[in-house]
Amino acid sequence: MARVQKFKVADPKNPTFSEKTRMLQGQLQRSLKAQDFKFTAFVAAARSEDYNHTMNPIPPGFTMQDGELDIEKLRNLINQVPKLSQLHKILEEQQFSQINRDIINLVFWVILYAQNIHQISVEEFMSKLPLTDENRCDRKPAHVFRVVARRQPWFNEIVATHNIRTSTGIYCSKFEGIFKLLVHEFKIMNSEYLLLRTDFDPAFSLSERVWENSEFFTEFRCVAVCSILEHNEKVEKYILNNAYSYLKIFDENLLLLNYLVLYEDETKAIKGEDPEQSWWKSKSHAILLGVLALLGVLVAVKATRSIRTGEPKFNY
């Protein structure tokens, strides 16, 4: 891989199109998988039914006169975005006539606006976790991204200056909410408190299909691993059904987003295979047995009813 050449942008707040292409090319060259993940998270937010909530902020050029998001215009442009490796090749060869400039502006904004992330090995991640017998999870993730949070220097200074203990919590979110998390962390809370799990079981997150042009991801569960400043009044332990341990966080400033962790779906869908087909392959035997069992129950019930009289009707 060729070395990325550094250069100085004349006006960082208003880069030229040429400067955008060079910066975007450098980002894709350094960490294609991380940028693929960020754009995939952005696509999930844009395609959400709750896009007015997940698309915050609105990308430049997609605000209507009334201030609302022009979601159709945004989704139409997303449908034109190629695989990011193809986009990188276009930028590298400066074949700008082959692509809509609006695509370059959009991908540039997504990748540069969200907080930096970079991939680390699963082994490194597992070695850093404060696992105990209570929160241990034997299931290893497929991908781990460390978040270079903008608040991290402030958070570290608070811990060091006041000698505050920290704990670890797991935030489970729909994938459509991950991009907003990458931009704002937990600054925009829509409830009185946040619930974070204390164990690392990914089963409580949703398995979701993702952007069809992603080159690394198909269907997975995504959880956010956070550091929590311990606080007697604003952090409460919460036990659900005498089984599941949570932490109630009443102040988002006590949270720092550290990692985004991806677990493969149990169907183990792979790139090139339709996840829906993969699901049917893995579940068809169990479904068939379930249908047969249900048919057996219905036959038994019908046979029982046939020898009974005066049975009351059910009102549905």
Question: What this model shows, in words?
Answer:
The chain is α+β, with helices and mostly antiparallel strands. It folds into 2 domains: 17-114, no CATH class; 117-264, Phosphoenolpyruvate Carboxykinase, domain 3 (Alpha-Beta Complex). Helix content is 38%, strand content 18%. Helix 1 packs across helix 6 (101-113). It is globular. It starts with 16 loop residues before the first helix and ends in a 10-residue tail after the last helix.
Find the structural class using helix and strand composition: alpha+beta
Largest sheet: 6 strands, antiparallel
Separation, N- and C-terminal Cα atoms: 66 Å
What's the CATH class of the largest domain, please?
A: Alpha Beta
Q: Ranges with pLDDT <50 over ≥5 residues?
A: 268-293, 295-316
What share of the residues does DSSP label as strand, in percent? 15-25%
**Number of DSSP-assigned strands:** 9
Number of helices: 10
Percent helix, as a range, is: 25-40%
Number of domains: 2
Shape: globular
Q: Report the C-alpha radius of gyration, rounded.
A: 24 Å
**Secondary-structure element order, as H and E?**
HHHHHHEHEHEHEEEEEEH
Q: Mean pLDDT, as a whole number?
A: 80
How is the CATH topology of the largest domain named? Phosphoenolpyruvate Carboxykinase, domain 3
Q: In the CATH classification, which architecture of the largest domain applies?
A: Alpha-Beta Complex
